[in-house]
């Protein structure tokens, strides 16, 4: 009797339970595959033997679903997957070699209508989303977020590959993007464009929090020494056309509070604040631009900042692209808690171009010349020449 009662109860519950409906989304799949060969010549000291030839690859597949409701609200979801890219390998297998793995890069949902766009999930903050790219040789090499860099910063302080550039294995890419907390679940509001003007804000309760396995989340402790919370960003951009002239300007700021201050002079001993500004000017097939980024690197005390400049120019007449950029970043002695005796300055000149073989398929080649000024840190000021030949396929 009891068994029959339970069976009947379960059957009734199944009948009256609402069915899970599927959203009618228009699904699109796209992404890219990049492969590059680098030949490098390093001005290194005796005792180092840095690699002179290397191969890099970077691939991503994105899934996007979108629909528009009857009241005009656009609802979308997007997931971006890094697939077998350089730097995502697992340890060597029994048979030798490494096995690539897939890594989620970004995953978010968005709502958009005439009042703007709201994004919820793991995506870059507004300071990066509105940041323009300075014209240059190859955006994968001298763009805001450097994707490919055949230089180990360990040699910067003494010209030796010896883990002496503290913290150990600390690496700095030669970019100018304002995205200190890239892998973070956040809320971002972006206004609609009005006469070329657009602005937005981003907020997250914690840095690096990406909940993807469950629907519940316990309150997180916020008293960890040197860790951050409440990262916030704000940015504004304006685009305008004046006949054959085009002008883009943008400024953004990002900040995050420490949960508990670390010791003075250490990373996380101060709130992290980074701001940027940039301008691009275009005339017909020509363009010039520049950008600046300043960060206090979250280190309290003197000599703790990083200042970065870049200026560039380009000529674009399909299928050809030619460009060049000059890049300079200066790390104060205790920026990122490195603890050097003097500031360290890195300069890079990049010259290159590309050819659009077919829609979405390009060949690219760049020559970069890097010079390091160590000040009194070391009598050795390393230099590097980097030649690249690459292919990018967007699909």
Account of the protein in words:
By secondary structure, this protein is mainly beta. The protein is built from three helices and 18 strands. The chain has helices spanning 2-16, 126-129, 139-142; strands at residues 26-42, 53-68, 74-83, 89-92, 98-100, 102-113, 116-122, 185-190, 197-203, 228-242, 245-258, 272-283, 286-295, 306-317, 320-331, 344-358, 361-373, 383-394. The protein has a 16-stranded antiparallel barrel with strand order 1-2-3-6-7-8-9-10-11-12-13-14-15-16-17-18. A two-stranded antiparallel sheet has the order 4-5. Strand 8 and strand 9 (197-203) form a beta hairpin. The radius of gyration is 24 Å and the shape is globular. The relative contact order is 0.14. Mean pLDDT is 85; it is low at 1-17, 87-97 and 211-215.
Short description:
The protein has 395 residues and is mainly beta. The chain has helices spanning 2-16, 126-129, 139-142, and strands at 26-42, 53-68, 74-83, 89-92, 98-100, 102-113, 116-122, 185-190, 197-203, 228-242, 245-258, 272-283, 286-295, 306-317, 320-331, 344-358, 361-373, 383-394.
